[in-house]
Amino acid sequence: MEKTELAHCIYSSAETKTFTHEEIIALLEVARANNSQLGITGILLYDNGSFFQVLEGEPSVVQSLYDKIGADNRHRAVSKIVYEPIEERDLSERTMGYADITREELNRIDGLNDFFCGQQSYIDLDEGRAKTLLNAFKEGKWRSSIS
Ligand SMILES: Cc1cc2nc3c(=O)[nH]c(=O)nc-3n(C[C@H](O)[C@H](O)[C@H](O)COP(=O)(O)O)c2cc1C
């Protein structure tokens, strides 16, 4: 059987208005329902008004979901950091995992070394750091923090 093509997209963005915890939960509920239909897996992080999201799945589905999310006026400055083919999913267990991790925890990730201080947020991540962050989740180090 031919192997299904896969790609992932990693982006960051900035909220246009402060999200309450309830609003994040509501967003995740919609995202998870849609993503399970679309065969999309991934993770969403939210810190200090900025989002970091990984979407993985069939390439055209990932691209069209990214376009749809990008048009959502609850965030702005939606910036694609990585879009590339992948061999296998890094986050296959989650239709959209959500991890509420602290800046202290982020700064303890090897390779990020105190990147998140002061005004730095997810929107400042470059490709290397974005992948370092994804790898920290892939390795399962933060598995217990993912809901
Ligand atoms: C930061 C952020 C992340 C989102 N992630 C997803 C997602 O992973 N999947 C999804 O379907 N919608 C996601 N959305 C919501 C979409 O922009 C859109 O509101 C939703 O898909 C509409 O769903 P509906 O077509 O079922 O009404 C996200 C929105 C924001 C602001």
Given helix and strand content, the structural type is alpha+beta
Describe the sheet with the most strands. Answer: 5 strands, mixed
CATH architecture of the domain at 6-100: 2-Layer Sandwich
Helix content: 25-40%
Mean pLDDT: 92
Q: What topology, given as strand order, has the largest sheet?
A: 4-1-3-2-5
Count of discrete alpha- or pi-helical segments spanning 4 or more residues: 4
Low-confidence stretches: none
User: Are any ligands bound, and if so which?
Assistant: flavin mononucleotide
Shape descriptor reads globular
Give the helices and strands as they follow along the chain: EHEEHEEHH
Question: What is the CA-CA span between the terminal residues?
Answer: 34 Å
How much of the sequence lies in strands comes to 25-35%
Quick take:
The chain has 147 residues and is of the alpha+beta class. Helix content is 32%, strand content 27%. The protein has four helices and five strands, in the order βαββαββαα.
Question: Can you describe this structure?
Answer:
- The structure is a single chain.
- With 147 residues, the protein is of the alpha+beta class.
- The chain has a domain at 6-100: 2-Layer Sandwich (Alpha-Beta Plaits).
- It contains four helices and five strands; from the N terminus they run βαββαββαα.
- Strand 2 (41-47) and strand 3 (50-57) form a beta hairpin.
- The longest helix is centred in the first third of the chain and has 18 residues, at 21-38.
- The chain is globular, with a radius of gyration of 14 Å.
- The protein binds flavin mononucleotide.
- Flavin mononucleotide binds at residues 27, 30-31, 34-35, 44, 51, 53, 65, 68-69, 72, 74-75, 96.
- Residues 27, 30-31, 34-35, 44, 51, 53, 65, 68-69, 72, 74-75, 96 line the site of flavin mononucleotide.
